[in-house]
Design goal:
192 residues; alpha+beta; seven-stranded mixed sheet; 7 strands
């Protein structure tokens, strides 16, 4: 008789442990489900943030491209009046700075350094050429630009560390003829 109530109390304890275990498992499952939902919500928010920033960057790039195209059209119409002036002054002043910083991107500062000892802007056929080299060291690097007033196209080139990089020239296209006077018959190594 004495073992019967003990068995009953042990059954009661086992039942309580099982109930507690079920409760804990349900709690853990609920917590895991909540964590998974929170993680999914965070990833969705992160994706939307990245896409929003990407869309803003695309819109900004389109605005800059449109501004660049508008400025090049306007500037190309009066560039013939600049023939005989300093190439560096043209690159650094007003809209020229905006045009060349857009065209050259992160290489704009290098371009300015390589244009410090600049020559005059000249006609080469129907195109206009401006060029210069590094102050007190033309062998260290050179830079040039070509403007085609008829098409309102701007091109730039940097000769630095033994290679020439062209900007504004589409892949596979030939460098404008005016660059020949600046740097001979150098073949373009890179177009950007």
């Amino acid at each position: 008789l004495h073992s019967f109530p003990t068995r009953r109390s042990s059954d009661l304890i086992v039942a309580q442990v099982k109930a507690l275990a079920k409760f804990l498992l349900k709690g853990i499952a609920l917590l895991l489900t909540l964590l998974i939902l929170l993680y999914a919500a965070f990833k969705l928010w992160e994706y939307q943030t990245i896409e929003s920033k990407r869309a803003e960057n695309v819109a900004l790039q389109n605005r800059l491209k449109n501004q660049f195209e508008d400025l090049t059209r306007d500037q190309a119409s009066y560039i013939p009046l600049m023939v005989g002036t300093s190439s560096l002054d043209y690159v650094q002043r007003g809209n020229g700075e905006i045009i060349f910083s857009y065209l050259l991107g992160s290489n704009y500062k290098l371009y300015q350094e390589l244009m410090q000892d600049s020559g005059q802007i000249i006609y080469v056929g129907k195109q206009i050429l401006g060029s210069g080299c590094k102050k007190q060291g033309c062998s260290d690097g050179e830079a040039a630009f070509v403007i085609d007033p008829e098409s309102s196209k701007y091109y730039a080139a940097i000769s630095h560390e033994g290679k020439v990089e062209y900007y504004g020239i589409e892949d596979g296209a030939v460098a404008p003829a005016a660059f020949q006077q600046w740097h001979g018959s150098q073949t373009p190594e890179g177009a950007k």
